[in-house]
Amino acid sequence: MEKEEKSLLFVFNPYAGKGEIKYHLLEIVNTFAKHDYKVTIHPTQGQKDAFNYIAKNGNEYDMIACSGGDGTLNEVISGVMKLEQRPIVGYIPSGTTNDFAKGLKLPSKMTRAAKILMKGEPQRIDIGAFNEKSFVYVAAFGAFTEVSYATPQDMKNTLGHAAYLIEGLKSLPTIKSVHVSIKADNFEAENEDFLFGSITNAVSVGGFNGITGKDVDLTDGKFEVILVKRARNPIELQNIINIFMGIDIKGTNVIKFQTSKLLFKTEEEVPWVLDGEYGGSPKKVTIQNMHKAITVMSNTGKIVL
Fold first, then answer.
1. Domains in the chain: how many in total?
2. What is the pTM of this model?
3. CA 170, 156, 162, 98 torsion-angle sign
4. Residue 304 lies in a domain
């Protein structure tokens, strides 16, 4: 009796990272084919291409695999969120930071990650809703957030994580606080000033482990929230620097909590970054945890390749 052939869409960004996908594409597709998948490949043609293609055609596939950086992953999962029947998502990281991949324990070697997609364990994870948009692992505003989408791709490829810090240091003289009101499950702030704020569902952000705290659970229906006020003394200034270096810090100007929903209101337009890409500049933001909204292939740590 012949095995039933399944369908797989492979979406990839040919320019992510250093364009490494071109050296591994044939082996990756062959890995999928060996596991009885009929493979359709779609190289992205520009911004929003992955989102539009999947929102239109995604229902035709049993699995949607993608390779690229966090921006590509955001578009793919945002497209899947628009589907009535959401297929399993597989991720082969090939970007600069690949924060999300760390939470799924995916290997950095692309051909090994492809095998995880075939032999791993399906895991239902939380996804963030940002007004009408989706984000996979981080929504943030304030200091340094514009660096992730303003840093040129060739600089990211050459310098990696250092590129973000270099560009961020350039912006320090112009950084100003954001005047905002916030309401969450167990936290409220009325017209307070924050230098930085992040809402995350990840074990690392910007390539740095530890910044979101310990024992992060991608399936618990909660976000990890960090709010940072402007430094009033050298110790608090060092705390801020440590946070951007990925060091878990507690202090009087650092607020941390978990929540399933947040409301933000500002008098001025405030730029947000979603998964490393510009997310708009709304004055009102509702962020909701979509509990176990997407099924992804993860590495259980028991897989023999």
1. 2
2. 0.84
3. positive
4. no
